[in-house]
Amino acid sequence: MTARSLSIRNVTKSYGALQNAVDDVTLDVLPGEFVSFLGPSGSGKTTTLMMVAGFQDPTAGEIRLGDRVIGPIPPYRRNIGMVFQNYALFPHLSVADNIGFPLRMRGMGTAEKTERVGRALDMVNLKGFESRFPAELSGGQQQRVALARALVFEPDLILLDEPLGALDKNLREHMQVELKRIHRELGVTMIYVTHDQTEAMTMSDRIAVFNKGRIEQVGTPTDIYFKPQTSFVASFIGDSNLLSGVGRQDGGFDVDGIGKVKGAEAATAGRRQPLLLRPEMVRLAAKPSDGRPPMKIEARVNYGDNVLLIGKLGTAPFRVRVPGPEAKGLSDDGECHVTWQAEDVHVVPETA
Amino acid sequence: MAATRSVPSTTSPALLSAPVVIFLAAVFLIPLGYVIWMSVSEPNPGLGNFIDIFRSPVFFQVVWQTFKTAFIVTVCTLLISYPLAYAAANGSKGMAAFLLTVVALSFWTSFLVRTYAWMVILGTQGPVSDLLAALGWNPPPRILFTTFSATLAMTHALVPFMTLALYAVMNRIDRRLVQAAANLGATPVRAFLTVYLPLSAPGIVNGCTLVFIMCLGFYVMPVLLGSPRDQMIAGVIGDQIEQMMDFGLASAMSIVLLTITLTLYAIYNHFVGLDRLWR
Amino acid sequence: MSWQIRTLAVAIAIFLAAPLFIVIPMSFSTAQSLSFPPPGYSLRNYANFFSDPTWTQPLINSVIIGIGTSVLTMLLVVPASFAVIRNEFRGRSALRLLLMLPMIVPTIVMALGYYIYFGDLGLVQSYPGVILAHTCIAIPISFLILTAALKGFDRSVEQAAMGLGATPLTTFRLVTFPMLRPAFLVAALFAFISSFDEAVISLFISGRDKATLPRQMFNSFRQEADPTISAAASFLFLLVLTGIVISRVYAWLRARQRGAAVAGAFGDKT
């Protein structure tokens, strides 16, 4: 299977209304990469996917698959595999006929078709299911048939539109592992739309974070998590403390009610920027450090292996996540001292 | 999501709907036009037919009779169908299946089969007469060819329509709402009256509208089972066509019937919307 | 649900069904009149129904006209329902209304119109005339059935087919049409039945040689007391009864087979 690159350049989808569904989106996906489109509902991720598949036309911009501009090519000639949210299996055809459908469209002979269908079923661990019908299958099995159908014809690119949304938690985690395995084995380029950040984080080579029709950031899960480029990304991914600080001459920040805070990146004097500090990067201290006030604890949530402390540091809402044993030492007066490393404070390159 | 490229929206809707539009224009609108035309041109041009109708006490009697019968049929149908639809919507799967099968059977049975059945049952040699005679009423009164027999037959025929209209709405009523009412202190009767009945109201409106309007235009059953002295309007129109051969008058009466029917639909459409009637 | 309501519902159901069943024993009656219970039993009425041309001809006419109506209705309504459901265009609601009109206008009014109009065209007492009129009556019902099915049709299967390489035409042929086939059949069946049962218009325009079965029955009611009518009535009723029983049994069997398969499917890991 030859994986191809996907190039989305300045693509916009407008319905004439006030805000564009997709607004000047640019993204380059490398061959064989697994990229997630992550974002809340209505952020434009599915619409973008639909434009790549050919079911919607961009109002502006260009999409290339490999070196071919695919805009004028109708969906049935794009050779792109797609897994829909509700699987879209043909209810009147057997599993074998469903999976064999794209091969039939390509004029393949019966013997070769049967062989390929068998291999596809094998790949998704559904050997022996050839003569079953979609209505007889469980959700997880239907999903795997949909996947087999999308890769049996060795497409250049596979699109997945929230394919695991309808499954329960255990099944979903199992399928995530399966999908990654198949991606590794086939080496095909995959685009995965989801609103579930855990899914995106665990499965992707890179994540494109969508918000209101635009891509806020594209990066590896690590980059997205530890170095978000906008406050939206910072707060959308994981748990976060977003402090607001004004830059000082010496490169640190003045944060209201807390005092001087140094970040991993240097400040610009006079510029107010959001500062991201992940709750799990904060540690409890026996005594105050750096002239910081104590944290006022308003609630404790016990997760067993860790404890989440919710409260305020100075005037800012603050959350701290400590391993269970460490929390045992907390006094009952509703206050504690906290400390962290400067390099764990990420300066978000935005003007707050 | 508006998928722009799917089949067969690629073919122009004008092309797809042209055949049926042309057909209806030729085979439906034109005959209708004939009727309208004849009402003001046969036997002489002008509104003579309408004047005759509106000056005739007999015609008003017929219209009144038609409305009265339709009203009674609607009320009776509602009272009979409501428990049926309720049991089908709220009962066990087996109960619902049984009831809906019976309703389906009744729905699909031809009007003529029903007419024959009622003729047997209500006739002078039928089981009802026998029963009445046995109870001491000898000779038993004539039941057939009365307004009563026609009303009974029409009610019996329209129950499936009302039931299905009610069921369609009742089936969507969340059962937990009545449970919530009970939890908040309502007795079963009060819960029904304050929660369930109002929620089923759209079904009642739909069903009554449908049944009432259908009954207005009924021909077969009133003619075959009803009293020749108390005719409904469709039967009178039929007479004018067959026996009197007075097409002008028949057309004028048809226009009156049509106007009444359309007005009722228009009222329904204004308050509810025509597409709700046939989901 | 209390037992009182359950009993009431069952009683009503019996009231609904029982009168209809009476036609069956009546059809075997030896009596000339409508006396019930029948004095004796014989197959004479059926023999007559299936051999006397006064009855067999109308039966054949009804079947021919019914099939003609069904075919013509489907040819007209199928493209129109696709147009209405899948496209937004000006005049869409006007089109819907036009297609519903035959259902709104009382049949007697149409009968009058056809009597004169078809009379002028020389279409009275002919198959085409009745077929055209019956098609008018059938259009609204079939349209409703088809649009309901189309509305609930999930188009992602069509998108999937196209994504897999099928052209729009192939998609319609291999995916859309097979999936809609049940709805198409029901619509065609309803068209057939509404024609087969239609009495009022047939009465006025089918004439004596092209008389439909309903017309024959209607006249029989009014004129002679021909006991063969009991066989006709019973025949029609048993047709409906058989159809309903078959469809229920079929649905029950399918559900059972489906349930067993799903249970089996959950036997393996996911």
In the CATH hierarchy, what is the class of the domain at 54-224 in chain C?
A: Mainly Alpha
Low-confidence segments of chain B, given as residue ranges, are 1-8
User: How many beta-strand runs of chain B?
Assistant: 0
Q: What fraction, in percent, of the residue positions of chain B are helical?
A: over 70%
- Sketch the topology of chain B as an H/E string, one letter per element: HHHHHHHHHHHH
CATH topology of the domain at 56-245 in chain B: MetI-like fold
DSSP summary, beta strand count of chain C: 0
CATH class of the domain at 56-245 in chain B: Mainly Alpha
Please report which band the strand proportion of chain B falls in: under 5%, 5-15%, 15-25%, 25-35%, 35-45% or over 45%. under 5%
Question: CATH architecture of the domain at 54-224 in chain C, please?
Answer: Orthogonal Bundle
Q: What is the SS-derived class of chain C?
A: mainly alpha
Assign the structural class of chain B, choosing from mainly alpha, mainly beta, alpha/beta, alpha+beta, or little secondary structure: mainly alpha
Task: Please give the most extensive interface between any two protein chains, plus how many residues each contributes.
Answer: B-C, 90 and 94 residues
Distance between the termini of chain C: 38 Å
Radius of gyration over C-alpha positions of chain B, nearest whole angstrom: 23 Å
| CATH homologous superfamily placement of the domain at 54-224 in chain C | MetI-like
Overall radius of gyration of chain C: 23 Å
Characterise the protein shown here.
The complex is a heterotrimer of chains A (352), B (279) and C (270). Chain A folds into two domains: 6-231, Rossmann fold (3-Layer(aba) Sandwich), CATH 3.40.50.300; 239-347, no CATH class. Chain A is built from nine helices and 20 strands. Chain A has helices spanning 45-53, 95-105, 110-123, 139-151, 169-186, 197-203, 221-226, 231-236, 324-327; strands at residues 6-13, 22-29, 34-38, 60-65, 68-69, 80-83, 157-161, 189-194, 206-211, 214-219, 241-247, 253-255, 259-261, 272-277, 283-285, 295-302, 306-313, 316-323, 335-339, 346-347. Chain A has a six-stranded mixed β-sheet, with helices on both faces. Chain A has a five-stranded antiparallel β-sheet with strand order 13-12-11-14-20. Chain A has a five-stranded antiparallel β-sheet with strand order 15-19-16-17-18. Chain A is elongated. With 279 residues, chain B is mainly alpha-helical. Chain B has a domain at 56-245: MetI-like (MetI-like fold, Orthogonal Bundle), CATH 1.10.3720. Chain B has twelve helices and no strands. Chain B has helices at 13-39, 48-55, 57-90, 93-108, 111-122, 127-134, 147-170, 175-183, 188-216, 220-225, 233-244, 247-271. Chain C contains twelve helices and no strands. The chains are: A alpha+beta (352), B mainly alpha (279), C mainly alpha (270). The interface between B and C is large, with 90 and 94 residues.
